[in-house]
Amino acid sequence: MMTEDLEYPIDGKGVFVVMKLCQHFFKKPWDKLSTLDYDTDKDSILETFNLTLYSPNLLYAENLTNENSSNNNFDRFMDTFSQQLEEKDEANKEPSFVMFVLMSHGLVNGGVLLSTPESEKNRVDPCDCEPHTGTGECYVRYISTHIMKKVCDVYGHLSIPKIFVIQTCRGDERGVILANGVDTRISRLNGVAPSELELFILNTSDCFLFRPCLEGHGSWAGVEGSKFGSFFIKHFCQALKQLRESANHSAENRKKLSGVRGSKDCPHPFERLLSLANEENMEGGWLVNICQRTTELVTNWLIHEIPESAKTEPTDDKQQPHFSSSLAYKVSFLKILKTQWEEKDQYLAEWYDKMQGTGRSTSAQSF
Ligand SMILES: [Zn+2]
Asked: Which of 127, 130, 242, 299 is 20 to 30 A removed from 276 (C-alpha atoms)?
């Protein structure tokens, strides 16, 4: 039977990992990578979650590289981040959630670009592996293998939500969006069902991955010094700020309403109603609500609000934030279909049983 316990108990502090990779000084053919204004994004995230760089439940890292000898080695950071967090706050060894935010340049297939070690004067050669190996000297790491899997391994013994917010491009396709115009087609999909890459199906449980755009597409961020940040993080933070504001507003209203009190034995209907109301539902606070709101804000910005100063070429580029979730994978429609089609669609029943690792049930009622 369904119980309310299915919701994660967020009954203590979580941990935050914020990573800003904005130093990308390569030689040709990677010499055109702009230095992006991810400082503003970092500040927005800290402000939104009431964090400072000294907060014990925050680990902040910038410009991690592939250099083994460097203190700023990405792989080493990912292998030790939870120990570093524990050292900062021993009392928070079992956090109630993990939030991982990363800003960098990126490419298709969940590739994230590591930083180069030194300043603009010491540009380095790009790695020449193809496809990128994601290990050692390669300047690429992959979200699924090198970030999500590592975080899940570390916190695998805790059934806690792990939320990843990754601001990078996912390719270099562009599509202009016009006010009152028809949306451009997503060329990569070309009329066929979304590819596995597009869906970015998660093979880790309890995870939520939020990204600025669709697979194959670029996302926009202001360049260094613009004080603009990225369209994605900017509006994600704005959506969360609006959530706080609306929650405050309703709390005030609730207080006013509950001023109309009944006796203790017989609570006033208002109070009963209020006690039943689910705050998350009322405020639109679920993860999916925030993602939808972020998408609305980004789209609205692209069509109506973008100032001339923030425009890049080509102007008004399409950008649609995209999430993948295994938090919601608690029930499968296959299971539901099976209850209706088991007799006719044999393959469905057999395939499902195989997934379950059980033999074919003799009774149609017993799954
Ligand atoms: Zn490489």
From this structure: 242
